[in-house]
């Protein structure tokens, strides 16, 4: 699922590079919320797939448990992206910065920035781990043949 790492990287750059916030504010928000929708849909479709073919349950158990954990990480990430969207300041235009708003609290800005970076990195890592577990289940030859 490529949306999750793209969303995480976009939000990390949004949080770390104040000069680009004018450009990345909306994409970070849309991708962050979209990642939550994608993770939820992937979990529900995986649950439905296993319900339709119950013998897969043991074979994809690791993938499923990592996916469940990933959903929680993406939920936290989406909340942080909304907070970053609302709290992080930066120029609103590339040339003159007109309309820039000052952050009311520098420590709050640092905490939100750090949280977005850390949780974004965790989302990327957990996405890789989840995908790897799924790929190993499929390509190890342990899934039942048609």
Could you characterize the architecture of this molecule?
It is built from four helices and no strands. The protein has helices at 3-16, 21-52, 61-87, 106-139. α1 packs antiparallel against α4. The longest helix is centred in the last third of the chain and has 34 residues, at 106-139. The mean pLDDT is 88.
Strand content: under 5%
Sequence stretches where pLDDT stays below 50 over 5 or more residues: none
Helix content: over 70%
**Sheet with the most strands, sense and barrel status:** none
- Backbone CA Rg: 18 Å
> Could you spell the SSE succession in H and E letters?
HHHH
Broad shape: elongated
Structural class: mainly alpha
The number of helical elements comes to: 4
Strand tally: 0
Report the mean per-residue pLDDT as an integer.
Answer: 88
Q: How far do the termini sit from each other?
A: 25 Å
Task: Give the secondary structure arrangement, pairings included.
Blueprint: H1 3-16, H2 21-52, H3 61-87, H4 106-139
Helix pairs in contact: 1-2, 1-3, 1-4, 2-3, 3-4
Please give a quick description of this structure.
This protein is 73% helix and 0% strand. It is mainly α.
Descriptive key words:
single chain, 146 residues, mainly alpha, 73% helix, elongated
